[in-house]
Amino acid sequence: MTRLKDAVEHIAKAIISQKDYLNMLDKAIGDGDHGNNMAIGFTAALEDIENMNDDGNPSKVLKAIGTAFSENVGGAAGPLYAAAFNRASKACDENTSFTIDSVIKVLGEAIEAIKKRGRVKPGEKTMLDVLLPVYEVFVKGKEKDMTLFQCLGEASRAAKEGADYTRTISASKGRASYLGIRSIGHQDPGATSSLIMVRELYNFFQR
């Protein structure tokens, strides 16, 4: 089960490598520290995961990421990602494996946690504008008997479209909401970090 650990490491390194880009996006409509916060969270998560006795347990891995974010990351996105990963971990058991069904279950729980913690809904220029279309890809993929890899490819494209969509709408949550319609034209940094995670998961399995 080293593959799960490797996938997380790949995603974490991708986030960390794009720290400055995420900061730049956040500087336009927020505090300018989203990249730093994401890098701090994933660096802490990697340290915890590497010290695990059983890194093949998806619940433990997701819990480690959630705990790392809750204990080390502030800002707007930190608590949302913490809530998402912690609730996702509770949706897993020792028999959970990487399948379309498990993605639907785990991602669905993560989305509900974000909705509850952030009191957000689609169309408010947040990470939900990426994660909900990704979730819908897996639901429709199951109906169409698509493979997991096919769903990941479609999810990566849907995530990109979702992040692009955030440029066209005004923010109504967080610091960006203070800008009102002036936030239009700027891509949401939280949506972008979610895009990177989805895209890099696909890239990892594409190798």
Unreliable stretches covering 5 or more consecutive residues: none
General shape: globular
Q: What is the CA-CA span between the terminal residues?
A: 17 Å
* Total count of domains: 1
What does this structure look like?
The chain is an all-alpha fold and 207 residues long. The protein has one domain (2-206): Serine Threonine Protein Phosphatase 5, Tetratricopeptide repeat (Alpha Horseshoe). 70% of the residues lie in helices and 0% in strands. The protein is built from 9 helices and no strands. It is globular, with a radius of gyration of 16 Å. The chain starts with a helix and ends with a helix. GO terms for molecular function: glycerone kinase activity; phosphoenolpyruvate-glycerone phosphotransferase activity.
